[in-house]
Amino acid sequence: MMKNDQRNKYLVLVNVAFQMGIVIALGVFAGIWLDEQFPNKFSGFTIGVSLFGVFLALYLVYKEVKNLDNKD
Asked: What is the model's pLDDT at position 68?
């Protein structure tokens, strides 16, 4: 049987995956919305805001894993 602490670590990692997906999806949808509001030739807002969402999601994952490691 797993200890409660170990179960909590797994739940944190599962939540991190959902959080990452939500942040990236929000970035994509915000970029698409901006491209509709301010049309341009290369869908620059979608690309830019999507990449920002990816980097933000990676930063949040790094911060959460570092925090998880410090709890030990």
From this structure: 80
C-alpha to C-alpha distance for 24 and 2, rounded to whole angstroms? 32
pLDDT at residue 4, as a whole number: 67
Region of 43 on the Ramachandran plot (φ > 0 left; ψ -120 to 50 alpha; else beta): left
Q: At what angle do helices 44-70 and 4-37 cross, to 10 degrees?
A: 160
Q: How far apart are CA 4 and CA 24, in angstroms?
A: 30
Query: What single-letter DSSP state applies at residue 43?
Result: -
User: In this structure, what token pair is assigned to residue 54?
Assistant: 């990816």
DSSP state of 31: H
What are the backbone angles phi and psi of residue 19, rounded to the nearest 5°?
-60, -40
Q: Using the predicted structure, report yes or no on whether residue 13 has a pLDDT greater than 90.
A: no
pTM for the model: 0.82
